[in-house]
Structures are given as C-alpha cells and as structure tokens.
Amino acid sequence: MKRHIITLLTAGVLTVTTVLPCLTQSKPAVNMNQYLFPEFTECIIKSKAGTITREIGNYNTITGKIAFIKDNSIYGITTVKQSDTIILSNRYFIPVGEAFYEVLLNAPIALFIQHESRLIAPGQPVGYGSTSKVSNVDTYSHLTTQSGVYSLEIPPDFEIRYLPVFWIRKDGNMNSFIGKKQFLNIFPEKKKEIGAFIKSGKIKFEDPADMIKLTEYCNNLYAR
C-alpha cells in the first residue's frame, strides 16, 4: 500500500518547520491563505486501483491541487487521474482534468465547487467570476514539483482573493455557472419552475448551502 502512494508522489524542495499539534509532520513556512484549510491535516487517498492510504494534506486554491507534507517537504500527486477520491476534513474531492473539485452533492444532477483563488497585483481590479488569474506564476518565487506549483511565496503587497466556481454535472456533461442566468441555461426545459424556486427561496448563488438546496430541487423536479 505504501509503495502505491510513493508512485503518486514526487518530492518538493520547500523546507518546512513548525510542528503541527498531534501530528508527526510539519506545517509549511508559507502563506497559508493560499490553502483551503488553516492547517495541514490527515487525509484519505482512494486510488482507482482500490488502495487506500493516509497522508497529511491540504488543498491549494491557487493551483487547484492537493499538497502533502512528507519528510519535511511538500509533495503533489504526479498523476491526478490515478486518484479516485481524496477526503480532507470529511469533505470529498475528485479529480477533474488536472485539478480537484469538491463534491457538494452526489446525485444524478451533481454539484461541485472548484475552490479557486487568484493572485491580485496592487491596483489590479478582478471581480467575482473573472478569469484573469495571474497566468505567469514563474514571475514569482514559488515551489515547483514535477506535477506543478504547490506553494507560492506570495509577495506581501499581493492579495489572495478567493473566487470559487460552481459546477453542475448533468447528463454526463460538466457545466460551470455564476449567477442565476447561467444556472438556468443548464436547464432550458425547466427554466420557469427553477426560476420560481430561486425567487421564492431567496437563493444566494455565492452560498454553497443554497446551491445544494437548489440542486436538490432540480433533482426532484427531473425525477417527477
């Protein structure tokens, strides 16, 4: 089992120092605002081959990937497609392309959230839903592994802005959406009913709990 996880991980080069309480691994000496969780904690890795391993990990919202601590270094999964599910803090993440999305609702019409943050240079306006992520990360000091960038050393005058994207999987197709209009476009034959539910329920599209409620309604609607 341990041999399997070694094939998934590749060594990083960042030295880490501070010891986490109750864990044998360490906390990276980097800006933790780039991570989804405030601490690196134990996670469960389920592979497509059926093996289960446990590591100390976190979710990097800038890269969209899972980072692990092992032997005082940060590692990343080299072949994302070999992973089936990663469980972090009792939350489930699945590989989509080269990134990981969190599963918010596992149903015929499924809901996911892509946790994303963007590096915002001083004076650079980037609004909700913008796709103008800083693209040339090589202009900044960062940790590089074979499988990508995992821990950026963020310049102090840069902002890390959290801008998540929701996804609906319907009929086997993944559809991203931001706001009511884009959501309704995913369900053209049920726009009227869903629109009425959004209005009566005062659904907020930035609230994951409301998105789960809305997607559950869509599942019930299509099951009739």
Distance between the termini: 45 Å
Low-confidence stretches: 1-26, 128-149
Total strands: the figure is 15
Beta-strand residue fraction: 35-45%
Domain tally:
2
Order of helices and strands: HEEEEEEEEEEEEEEEHHH
Taking all residues together, what is the mean pLDDT? 76
The secondary structure category is: alpha+beta
Shape, principal axes of CA atoms = globular
- From the alpha carbons, calculate the radius of gyration and give it in angstroms: 19 Å
Strand order, largest beta sheet: 1-5-4-3-2-6-7-8-9-14-15
Largest sheet: 11 strands, antiparallel
Number of helices in the DSSP assignment? 4
Approximate helicity band: 10-25%
Description of the molecule:
The protein is an alpha+beta fold. It folds into two domains: 1-100 and 125-161, no CATH class; 179-223, no CATH class. 17% of the residues lie in helices and 36% in strands. It is built from four helices and 15 strands. The strands form three sheets. An eleven-stranded antiparallel β-sheet has the order 1-5-4-3-2-6-7-8-9-14-15. Strands 10-13 form a two-stranded antiparallel ribbon. The N and C termini lie far apart (45 Å). The model is unreliable at 1-26 and 128-149 (pLDDT under 50).
